[in-house]
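Data card: per-record layout.
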Amino acid sequence: MFGFLKSRTQSASPIKTLSPSEIHDLMASTAITLVDVREPNEFQAERIPGAINVPLSQLHAQADLVPKDKPVILHCLSGGRSRTALDLCARMGLPVDTHMGGGISAWKAAGLPVRR
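The structure for this 116-residue chain is written out next.
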């Protein structure tokens, strides 16, 4: 749907994975919306500035919270839940096919900011 993400993929699979630094750059230019699919208590304890929270456990019921006006990238703690959320988005017909490899753990390991 949004061509600039295709050129940044690390895999030829339908699921696209971006690095924390790529996502940080895209967020700085407001080109994307980062959606944290962790549970609300995890999000409140520690989150990436600018991310919104739509928990995987509530994604189906809260699909209307997923923005449709620009590309959406999902993330979680380490990448597992965001991959599951990508599958769910595909089944629900949402145009979301990209996640952050390694989740917020990789984000922190890269020295990028978190809000507590």
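Known properties of this structure: Residues 1-13 have pLDDT under 50 and may be disordered. Strands lie at 16-18, 33-36, 52-53, 72-75, 98-100.

See the next section for split statistics.
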